[in-house]
Amino acid sequence: MANPRTTSSNAKNDQSEFVFEFFGPVGTAGCTLILPVVVLLLMHWSYVGKVDFSFLPSLFERRFWDKVLDSQVLCPSCRSYAILIKCSLGVMGWFLFQVVLERFLPCDLVQGTPIKGDIKNRLWYRINGHLSFWVTLLFALTGWPVWHEASSSWQFTSAPIDILFDYYAELALVTIVLCFVMSSYLYISSFNGKKVLADGGNSGILVYDFFIGRELNPRIGNFDLKEFCELRPGLIGWMLLNISCMVKQHQFLGYVSGSMILINIFQGIYVWDALYQERAILTTMDITQDGFGFMLCFGDLAWVPFTYSVQAKYLVNHDPQLPYSTLLLIIGVQIFGYVIFRGANGQKDAFRRNPDDPKLSHLQYLQTKRGTKLLTSGWWGMARKINYTGDWLMGLSWCMVCGIDSIVPYYYAIYFAILLIHRSERDDHLCKVKYGDDWDTYKQLVPYRFIPGVI
Q: What is the pTM of this model?
């Protein structure tokens, strides 16, 4: 059998040596089928304000699939093809709009990290996500074209962004379907020509490789699909969905609540920060190690915008009317988390780009046999995944603005804790393979994973 790290598009890995994740083919098949349903359930639960299964038809009920198609939760507007077609065109138009911005706005050309350690093999990326963010926001607020009958001319105004709330579930459904289409393209195209394959997505088992992703950096010409999807359509779309919830709450209540203002500010800053720091993503596991399959495609384009906006959607109809003292406490949690998250990530990215920078001369590190350096002081001397701790605290503050009347808004804190623990274990395994005994030494120098002195 061929080695899984080969670049041949037809290579398959020896199953006796391959390390499966997500409980192997069975687990990835389950994730592929169940996670889209979870998205639709969260759309419903955030609207009704509680966990609710009363809409589910019995598996033994006659005309079961007719009941599913009639369900506004499991298959919203599936009996109204016109609505789904319009939503599909809207989602595809949104995706193409972001492609146009990425292609034609001014950019910085930045080289990524060496592919699989090959210093001679590095890809170039167009970094203009921050500019795309502001152009999109400007277009939504002032650049929406409308036909003015009185003057027989096109005029520009704010987009009818509240329509996103009205068709929330339908937009989620068609986005999920398009993710399956795109993931199928990514899987099939990975067999064409000599492609660089991801080590973890080349098992030779269709359902597993479809989910994990076979090709490491799928491109159309010099357009990098993975890096583009990681930040552009989903993240900016998440921000617009939040704004649509704020507009809708104002229509319902006649005002915007403190909680709604905070969730838009908190998550808006999070999206802005990710795009402002776009080049930092080039050193992350998603870009350097993971293939681009259903896991990242669905996660970037469907899971992020439609489940990360659950708090804003919940607040439209179930605002807890928190007092100012509580809101101030929540702001403190958000700021504390952001300082940790941005401080740690900024320090790591600066060190990776130029470890000899005089501004970083105070930092201590472990010199590995591979030639790379692992930070053992500063933020990264406190805990190996201190950035995850800051990220989770920010997420917790998003949930806190919804009060304590329902567990639904807290799905994010629960899910994100599980995700970050899993990611840290994946990273620990990959680093052990990559650094060998040096990784054991590093863990002795930095014994804590998330919280200094605790865990």
A: 0.89
